[in-house]
TrEMBL record:
<dbReference type="InterPro" id="IPR013154">
    <property type="entry name" value="ADH-like_N"/>
</dbReference>
<dbReference type="InterPro" id="IPR014188">
    <property type="entry name" value="Acrylyl-CoA_reductase_AcuI"/>
</dbReference>
<dbReference type="InterPro" id="IPR051397">
    <property type="entry name" value="Zn-ADH-like_protein"/>
</dbReference>
<dbReference type="GO" id="GO:0043958">
    <property type="term" value="F:acryloyl-CoA reductase (NADH) activity"/>
</dbReference>
<dbReference type="InterPro" id="IPR011032">
    <property type="entry name" value="GroES-like_sf"/>
</dbReference>
<dbReference type="Pfam" id="PF08240">
    <property type="entry name" value="ADH_N"/>
</dbReference>
<keyword id="KW-0560">Oxidoreductase</keyword>
<dbReference type="InterPro" id="IPR036291">
    <property type="entry name" value="NAD(P)-bd_dom_sf"/>
</dbReference>
<dbReference type="InterPro" id="IPR013149">
    <property type="entry name" value="ADH-like_C"/>
</dbReference>
<protein>
    <submittedName>
        <fullName>Acryloyl-CoA reductase</fullName>
        <ecNumber>1.3.1.95</ecNumber>
    </submittedName>
</protein>
<dbReference type="Pfam" id="PF00107">
    <property type="entry name" value="ADH_zinc_N"/>
</dbReference>
<dbReference type="InterPro" id="IPR020843">
    <property type="entry name" value="ER"/>
</dbReference>
<feature type="domain" description="Enoyl reductase (ER)">
    <location>
        <begin position="17"/>
        <end position="328"/>
    </location>
</feature>
Length: 331
C-alpha cells in the first residue's frame, strides 16, 4: 500500500555559490533516494555535519535537493529483506545518509536493507536517536582504546570539546566504566552539567598561542579528542607512557603541529576513529551500548525538539550555542 505524502526538511542548492536553502517540502515515497527498505522515522539526531551541510560549508553535500540528517531511528514499513519485518525498531547512521543520499529529517526514509540495524533489546527509539552517530563514535573510541590496553587503573582520561554530543556520551560511558574523567571545555558555565554527566574534574583549554613543546608533564592515560589541531598536539605531549589517544574531530583545525617524540619516547598510540564502520562491528558496539557501554545519563545530555525548530537548532550548533545531543521528533 502506498504511503501518504509526508513532510521532509530538504536542502536546495543556492544560486551562484550561495549557501543552500533549507525548507520543508511535501514529498511522496518516489521522491526519496533509492533503497529497498522504507522506514517511518521516529527521531533523527542533530550532528555537526548536518549543521555544516545546512550552512553549505565543507562541501558536505554535493548534489541537491537533499534531505539532511546523518542518523535516524524508526520502524520498518516494508523491506525486501525478510529479516526486517514491518514494525521492527531500527537505527541507521552513516553510509552517506543525509549527505550522498536522503537522510533522517523526514517522516519517512528509504535506504538499502544492509544499512539497517535492528535495535538491541533495552534501547528505545528515543535513546537510539540520542546515541546515534555520536554515541556510536564514543563507543568506537573506547572500544579501540581498551583494545590497546586502556583500563581504569592506568590513570585519568581527558575528554576535549566536552560539551559536544560525542564527548558528553563518552564522559557518561567512561565514568560508569570506572574511569576518572577530566572534561575540557571553553564554556565555564557548563561545569555543573559536565560533572552531572560523570566528570570528576572540569578544566579550561590551555593557552595555545605559545609553541607547543614535544613533551610536557605526563598526565593522561587516555584522551578522547573531538577538536584536533593544536589542542590535540598539546594533549599528545601530555599523555603518559603507553597511553592511548582517540581522535575523530577537527573543529580546532585539520593541521596537527606535533612531532614523533610522544610516539617514540613514550609509546603513545594515536587512533583515528572513523565511525563509518562495517556492519559486524556496528552490531557488536550497539550491543555494547545496550549492555557494557550503556550510558546512565542520556536524559541529562538530550533535548527533543519539534521539526519546525530544526533550522534554528542546526544554525546554533555552528555558533557554539548548543550543548549535548538534540534530536528532532517526527512521530
Amino acid at each position: 500500500m502506498p504511503i501518504p505524502t509526508f513532510q521532509a526538511y530538504r536542502l536546495h542548492g543556492g544560486a551562484d555559490g550561495a549557501p543552500p536553502e533549507g525548507r520543508f517540502d511535501t514529498l511522496s515515497e518516489d521522491d526519496l533516494s533509492a533503497g529497498n527498505t522504507l522506514i517511518k522515522v521516529a527521531y533523527a539526531g542533530l550532528n555537526y555535519k548536518d549543521a555544516l551541510a545546512q550552512a553549505g560549508r565543507g562541501n558536505v553535500v554535493r548534489q541537491y535537493p537533499r534531505i539532511g540528517g546523518i542518523d535516524l531511528s524508526g520502524t520498518v514499513v516494508h523491506s525486501t529483506d525478510p529479516a526486517l519485518a514491518p514494525g521492527q525498531e531500527v537505527v541507521v547512521h552513516g553510509f552517506g545518509i543525509g549527505v550522498d543520499c536522503d537522510g533522517g529529517y523526514a517522516e519517512y526514509a528509504r535506504v538499502p536493507h544492509d544499512w539497517v540495524l535492528p535495535l538491541p533489546a533495552g534501547i528505545t527509539l528515543r535513546d537510539a536517536a540520542v546515541l546515534g552517530a555520536a554515541g556510536f563514535t564514543a563507543a568506537l573510541s573506547l572500544h579501540w582504546m581498551e583494545h590497546c590496553g586502556l583500563t581504569p587503573d592506568q590513570g585519568e582520561v581527558l575528554v576535549t570539546g566536552a560539551t559536544g554530543g560525542v564527548a558528553g556520551i563518552a564522559i557518561d560511558i567512561l565514568s560508569q566504566r570506572g574511569y576518572r574523567v577530566c572534561a575540557m571545555s571553553g564554556k565555564p558555565d557548563a561545569a555543573d552539567y559536565l560533572r552531572s554527566l560523570g566528570a570528576a574534574e572540569v578544566m579550561a583549554p590551555p593557552d595555545l598561542s605559545a609553541p607547543i613543546k614535544p613533551l610536557m608533564s605526563a598526565r593522561w592515560a587516555g584522551v578522547i579528542d573531538s577538536v584536533g589541531g593544536p589542542l590535540l598536539a598539546h594533549a599528545l605531549a601530555s599523555v603518559r607512557p603507553d597511553g592511548v589517544v582517540a581522535a575523530f574531530g577537527n573543529a580546532g583545525g585539520a593541521e596537527l603541529p606535533t612531532s614523533v617524540i610522544p610516539f617514540i619516547l613514550r609509546g603513545v598510540k594515536l587512533l583515528g576513529i572513523n565511525a563509518n564502520s562495517p556492519m559486524p562491528l556496528r552490531r557488536a558496539l550497539w550491543q555494547k551500548l545496550a549492555t557494557d557501554y550503556r550510558p546512565q545519563r542520556l536524559d541529562l545530555a538530550a533535548r527533543v525538539i519539534q521539526p519546525q525548530d530544526l533550522p534554528q537548532a542546526l544554525a546554533a550548533m555552528l555558533e557554539r550555542g548548543s550543548t549535548g545531543r538534540s534530536v528532532v521528533r517526527f512521530s
